[in-house]
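I am still getting used to backbone structure tokens and would like to learn alongside you. Label the sequence line and the structure token line clearly, so we can match residues to local backbone shapes. Would you write everything just below, so we can both look at the same thing?
***
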Amino acid sequence: MQPIDTGRTILHIDMNAFFASVEQRADPFLRKRPIAVIGSEKRGVVLSPSYEARAFGVRTGMMYHEARQRCPEIRFVPADPDKYSHTCKRLIRIWERFTPAVELFSIDEAFLDVTGCEALFGDGLRIAVAIKEAIWAEEGLTCSVGIAPNKLLAKLGSDMQKPDGIVVIDAIDVPEVLEHLPVKELCGIGPNLTRQLAGMGIRSCGELGRAELRDLAGRFGVLGERLQQMGRGIDHDDVVPLEHQDRTDAKSIGHSMTLEQDCADREQLERHILQLSEKVGRRLRRGRYRGRTVCLTLRYADFTTFSRQHRLSQTVSLGLDIHAAVMEIFRRLTLEQPVRLVGVSLSTLERSSDQIPLFTEERRKSFLTGAMDKINDRYGEFTVTWGTLAERFMHGRVISPAWRPGGMREY
């Protein structure tokens, strides 16, 4: 059995009800009241409920009407991505005072490797306390912190005492902590994996760690060994500092949007597809990628979700080319219900070259797109766009999974 690495001290910081807490900080009227940040005033999906709302059973992902039923006094606040990203950048500056090894896990979570920083700031617990005090003093926000020998256990620790808690998991205590812990509590084991493991008679982390590797590998392939290690609390993944996070190769690039109201108008849906294709193309060109496999994802009003793919004969990176390929898929579809969500993505990626296109029309499109990119880079997304999109591009912005403090990840 591989041992747990006891030579590292990893912190996982999880900001408590981040979006809701930022809104309460900005508006004194909202403080100590049940609120929920929602994605749209017309499309009420809860993104972040305050702890006052959670006391009534309001949860992330809950529909507007259900949240209202559980908490009649709840106040819904439209999301303000600029406000949250600005606050995140300020938090990063606090974290980087204690260690340069800061990995942004999401806009409200981060891993910090403070190994070797003890001589300056004390042990992991002292560092966690100092960080929490700094965040409260400077930002008026609270967080929960997990301290452990690796990222897996640190993430587990931060979830164990919310809000505003600190949990230390020492290597010697790992077997006791994991023995009866449900496997679903581990980061990376979702509902589908939980069900499959339950089908094998595995429900706790202790049972997962003791499971025969051949059985796990037979069911999950190469993932089997990783699952067994997770059941034992083993994780050798490094904390990847911010300046290195954008250097890894992407496997796919995509964007999706939940519509403000269910839509059955194919012409309107085509404009949404064009907008998403443009956003995907922009990210491809930033990262110097081209892709060959386009994918269209649709979600109906009843939450039925499906995807269709098409492999192209050559790689593409221009929004119009992506749009044309996706529209080939879309035109073959018969819509059974109004559409709630649209997504466009590109996979089978490869790095693009600086070679000038050979044919005149291709050169014209490339130079035109490059000029539009420069304007939009300087003045903001969709400052210049195609006429089809000019009359409607999405009001308000969503925070993409690729968000980073310096802007979207460069791919």
About this structure: The first strand starts at residue 10 and ends at 15.
